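Reopening: ATPase still failing for me.
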Amino acid sequence: MSKRFVVISGCSGGGKSTLVAELGARGHGIVEEPGRRIVEEERATGGTALPWVDMDAFLRRAIDMALADRTAAKDRSGWVFFDRGLIDAAAALEALTGEPVLAALGSEHRYHSCVFLTPPWPEIYGTDADRRHGLAEAEAEYRRLAQAFPRLGYETIILPKAPTPARADFVLSTLAELG
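Support: Ran it again with your exact input. Result attached.
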């Protein structure tokens, strides 16, 4: 377990990546979302592990990438903020296949005990070439994650719908209060 590894999760299109970029600009370690990186790689190589082609393969790649991200981040000092992570991919794969993926996660793969969730925020939600699902699917994903993290013993903290700098301040002050 690493108390320095903090997950920013929640609703797709809720501002996670923008928040993580802000935390990186403030000098903290960051890890970009596995899903976006996988889509970029698959498109570049003509692969099919894309959420709209083969969701199962996409999620299994996301799990592998999230594990590799954790290993790569071990040598970083200070806070390391993850734009999604292992639990996001495992929860989605479990919902898709029924496999008990979340139960198989060991304690060696834990993050900080508090996870920050971006709530559904229709005013900023948007689709693009890589995010093809609609708001209803994003809200279902949010509900699934809001249940998955507590089942694994994490405390979830809902991020305020606020400008990105204020959200970053909220994350950092919350972590400072927690020690």
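Residues 55-73 form the longest helix (19 residues). If you still see a failure, please send the error message rather than a screenshot.
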